[in-house]
Design goal:
Order of helices and strands: HHEHHHEEHEHHEEHHH
Largest sheet: 3 strands, antiparallel
Radius of gyration: 23 Å
CATH class of the largest domain: Mainly Alpha
Structural class: mainly alpha
Distance between the termini: 57 Å
Strand order of the largest sheet: 1-3-2
Helix content: 40-55%
Length: about 230
């Protein structure tokens, strides 16, 4: 009986120790950090099971994740966010917004320019746009998503519907009003776009692109901000 009691106390002590967050950098913290940093440039969500592999097991990851998150923010200016998905995933976003397109490589600039055009149009249309209407707008700018473009390149439909969505710059939602209607796909700002790009930046971009005063977009800006911060 005594040995059973001692075993129970030992298990409780181990549980208490395991539930305490690690506050010092050890080899497992370094392994988790290195994995995140190595994959952050891809801008693809990192699955929890991948971090578990780096940590050794799920409990080891759990007690180190808070420290890892703090180190990423304090040392590298990276915000590590959990997505509301199943299975559990995380993304890395920059702590500071991009100031100039010249911060990007030559290969990145066409993609980000196209992304800004898309985010601008979604913003101007009330933060949600049917994909066919978006593609119609792009075609007016001589950007055909199923044809190669001289500046933006080829495979633009895949870039928009797969790459930007996987990177969490865009979010796709399907809607069907009734069983008699064809389903429609809508595009919205994704979590990464909201974290890295402000509505004010998009207003400045729209003003320059459309040669208008930023004040002409006050209504859209107020609507966008209200949708992000609804009154209780």
């Amino acid at each position: 009986m005594a040995s059973t009691s001692r075993a129970a106390r030992s298990q409780n002590a181990n549980f208490s120790q395991a539930s305490r967050d690690i506050t010092e950098v050890d080899d497992k913290v370094r392994a988790i950090l290195n994995y995140i940093l190595d994959h952050s440039a891809e801008q693809i969500p990192i699955k929890e099971k991948e971090l578990v592999t780096a940590a050794g097991d799920k409990s080891e990851l759990k007690i180190r994740l808070q420290l890892v998150t703090e180190l990423l923010a304090n040392r590298f200016g990276i915000i590590f966010k959990q997505l509301d998905t199943a299975p559990k995933c995380y993304i890395c976003t920059s702590e500071t917004a991009m100031v100039s397109i010249h911060e990007l490589t030559a290969a990145q600039r066409p993609q980000i320019t196209l992304l800004y055009i898309i985010l601008m149009y979604i913003f101007l249309r009330g933060n949600s746009i049917e994909d066919t209407k978006l593609y119609g707008m792009l075609e007016l700018l001589n950007i055909k998503v199923d044809e190669e473009h001289g500046y933006f390149g080829a495979n633009l439909r895949k870039l928009i519907e797969e790459t930007f969505v996987k990177q969490q710059y865009l979010k796709r939602e399907r809607s069907q009003l009734s069983a008699y209607d064809d389903p429609k796909t809508f595009l919205l700002w994704g979590l990464r776009a909201k974290a890295e790009i402000s509505y004010e930046q998009i207003v400045q971009f729209a003003a320059k692109l459309l040669n208008q005063s930023p004040r002409n977009f006050d209504h859209q800006l107020a609507m966008a901000q209200a949708s992000e911060n609804p009154e209780p």
